[in-house]
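Hello,

Our lab assistant flagged a job as stuck in the queue for most of the afternoon. It eventually completed. Since we weren't sure the result was trustworthy after the delay, we are filing this so someone can double-check. Below is the sequence as submitted and the structure that was eventually returned. Let us know if re-running is recommended.
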Amino acid sequence: VTRRTAHARSVVVLPKELQDIFTEKDEINGPKGPIVATSIIAGTMAVKNTSNLIPFCHPLPVEKCDLKVRLEKESCSLVIDCIVATDHKTGVEMEALTGASVAALCIYDMCKAMSHNIMITDTRLISKTGGKSDYKSGEN
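-- returned structure --
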């Protein structure tokens, strides 16, 4: 049993016409409500339910789930970072990837009434620690 951490990221690229709905606090209020806040809840729920969604993933006691969504105005995109940690005998990469992915899907769902020209891209593992080896991509 060792400390296991994983950091995953997904990017949601929104069409330029949706940039006007961003508020000063980088929240988007759509027809269904606060999009960023709701996506954080969805991603957190997904982390906790990964073993129910992905065959052969073990249920894990998640001790940390930190999901952040930030706006990159230049590219009109939302960058979702999901960091998960536990003390266990198996890693949490799938939990972090599932959390980031579901948060991105939630953003799509909540924005589709305003535009279907939304792209989910670059879902990937940024880093992991613990287990046989650590991993770190070239990005932070």
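-- support follow-up --
The delay was a queue issue, not a problem with the job. The result is valid. The CA atoms of residues 82 and 100 lie 5 Å apart. The mean pLDDT is 92.
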